[in-house]
């Protein structure tokens, strides 16, 4: 009988905790950010994307060291879940005040670099953090690394990483999906030298929305920007 009472109390405590979590969905707008997650807790882990990057640089020792540094700077992580034998890659979105405010888990084919599946980062951290108010969708991937360098904006996180390896004199930002680029995101970059590199899927949208204020480069509408960057990386890695 004593054990049953303890079980009932435990269940009541669990229910109360769940109610508190659900009630948090009514948080005031100013409180609507993801609870701070230590970046070191998700950093420095190898995944399907880092395996792809290793292959892309032809396993050049100099560039492999650069990839290790890239993992630390972008706080790339990994999950144990597999898709077609490939570990998911944690791609956190980190704000300028160093808060993890969302992100994605992507599963890549390590040979081709094709994204097999995209999942929300918060689903892998805490199942009850899936409320939209915990994330800030208007933070670029790579935004926490913004400096006084010129800025390049691309669609895929993978492209931003390749760009950082190929041309480190530029700050590379990614939106994840072309339609996610907003006026508020671009307003953060006013006064900077910015070039947008859309692909054929988002060229019209980015041009219509931003060409008056920022340069929109059409050089990769018909050509794969990732292949171009890989060629530059391999040339950098040669003696």
From TrEMBL:
InterPro entries: DUF6371. Residues 48-199 form the DUF6371 domain. The lineage of its organism: Bacteria, Pseudomonadati, Bacteroidota, Bacteroidia, Bacteroidales. It comes from the Bacteria. This is DUF6371 domain-containing protein.
């Amino acid at each position: 009988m004593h054990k049953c009472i303890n079980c009932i109390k435990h269940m009541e405590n669990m229910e109360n905790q769940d109610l508190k979590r659900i009630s948090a969905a009514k948080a005031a707008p100013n409180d609507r950010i993801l609870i701070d997650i230590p970046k070191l807790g998700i950093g420095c882990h190898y995944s399907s994307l880092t395996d792809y990057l290793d292959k892309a640089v032809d396993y050049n020792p100099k560039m492999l060291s650069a990839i290790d540094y890239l993992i630390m700077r972008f706080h790339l992580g990994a999950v144990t879940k597999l898709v077609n034998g490939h570990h998911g890659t944690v791609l956190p979105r980190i704000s300028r005040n160093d808060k993890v405010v969302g992100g994605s888990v992507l599963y890549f084919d390590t040979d081709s670099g094709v994204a097999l599946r995209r999942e929300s980062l918060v689903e892998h951290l805490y199942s009850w953090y899936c409320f939209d108010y915990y994330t800030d969708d208007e933070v670029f991937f790579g935004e926490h690394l913004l400096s006084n360098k010129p800025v390049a904006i691309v669609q895929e996180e993978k492209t931003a990483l390749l760009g950082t390896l190929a041309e480190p004199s530029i700050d590379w930002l990614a939106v994840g999906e072309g339609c996610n680029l907003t006026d508020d995101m671009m307003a953060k970059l006013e006064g900077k030298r910015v070039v947008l590199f859309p692909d054929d899927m988002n060229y019209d949208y980015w041009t219509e929305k931003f060409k008056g204020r920022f340069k929109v480069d059409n050089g990769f509408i018909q050509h794969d920007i990732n292949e171009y960057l890989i060629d530059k990386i391999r040339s950098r890695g040669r003696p």
